[in-house]
Specification:
heterodimer; A: 114 residues; mainly beta; 7-stranded mixed β-sheet; 4-stranded antiparallel β-sheet; globular; B: 113 residues; 11 strands
Chain lengths: 114, 113
């Protein structure tokens, strides 16, 4: 069974870039079975899809975030990453990495504050 | 964008009784290949979401058979035949007709009376 684990800073200053990495275990990120994605959940609120990537590098982004988001994959490390630029307090959320819809990481809280 | 609307937003249920949650999409979720990418997720308090149902009515691995999904086109339902204490949490419907692009319902909070 796939397992996903997010890692990265829990505190980011406004206007800076949020960077998170997801490490996949129990399977290969190069598997054609999955798209890999990031989903976030502001405290006490619902779920928002940020974007997804295929192992080949093809990416899909939420139009509302597209100008600020970059998702990349490192098949040699079985990892994929998220970068979200020019963050504000509205980007404070629990960020989940997912094997699109099927398997979820535990999530990591990222707070945007000076 | 496809908008997903869930009802009710809160559902108090007696243990052992059935529960039902509805999800309506702003447009048909039937893909050109004939599949319908509508899933249901459960989020227990303090936990990440987990997949319960995929493609409308298929239970994911390890999901108890008291959970069932049904529906077609734009109207979908999640049913719990007999609610147990561990079922408390928030339930989300998710569409991925333009996979991997997806959108979620607002969530329905299931609580015990």
């Amino acid at each position: 069974q796939l397992q996903l684990q997010e890692s990265g800073p829990g505190l980011v200053k406004p206007s800076e870039t949020l960077s998170l990495t997801c490490t996949v275990s129990g399977g290969s990120i190069s598997s054609s079975s999955y798209y890999w994605g990031w989903i976030r959940q502001p405290p006490g609120k619902g779920l928002e899809w940020i974007g997804s990537i295929y192992y080949s590098g093809t990416t899909y982004y939420n139009p509302s975030l597209k100008s600020r988001v970059t998702i990349s994959v490192d098949t040699s490390k079985n990892q994929f990453s998220l970068k979200l630029g020019s963050v504000t307090a509205a980007d404070t959320a629990v960020y989940y990495c997912v094997a699109m819809g099927d398997y979820w990481g535990q999530g990591t809280l990222v707070t945007v504050s000076s | 964008d496809i908008v997903m609307t869930q009802t009710p937003l809160s559902s108090p249920v007696t243990l052992g009784q059935p529960a039902s949650i509805s999800c309506r999409s702003s447009q048909s979720l039937v893909h050109s290949d004939g599949n319908t990418s509508l899933s249901w997720l459960q989020q227990r308090p303090g936990q990440p979401p987990r997949l319960l149902i995929y493609k409308v009515s298929n239970r994911f691995s390890g999901v108890p058979d008291r959970f069932s999904g049904s529906g077609a086109g734009t109207d979908f339902t999640l049913k719990i035949s007999r609610v147990e204490a561990e079922d408390v949490g928030v339930y989300y419907c998710m569409q991925a007709t333009q996979f991997p692009v997806c959108t979620f319902g607002q969530g329905t909070k299931l609580e015990i009376k």
